[in-house]
Amino acid sequence: MNQHLNLLTAEGFSRLNMSEFRYKQVIAVRIDLGMSKGKIAAQVGHAAVSAAEEARKHWSSWWKSWLKEGQCKIAVEVENEPQLLKLERQSKRSGLPYALIHDRGLTELPPDTITCLGIGPAPSQEVDKITGKLTLL
Known about the structure:
4 strands; single chain; four-stranded mixed β-sheet
């Protein structure tokens, strides 16, 4: 089952399993860095918390609705830094909460390496316009 899910895009996964969620958060992770599973988990955690905090401050109705629905989160892959920065620009233009994560360089990566981007919580259809074609992590 997990192998099958890895072939789906974020949008396809949402349609199959999460249609009841009106709000979601997507974390885009660079796969070119070769991060360990633990490092990826930590970076995704930073992105999820930071983007949620942005939503809480500036899009509180979206944040509250997302909390009530169960805090839907999806992790997706991006190939490299330019692709991640493109998603950041699209998120900004679309008026969505987001957080770009720069690593401090204490373990696996050089200081200030951009590792991932949290988008949302925001309306699912708006997030899907930016991330819906990306492959699940």
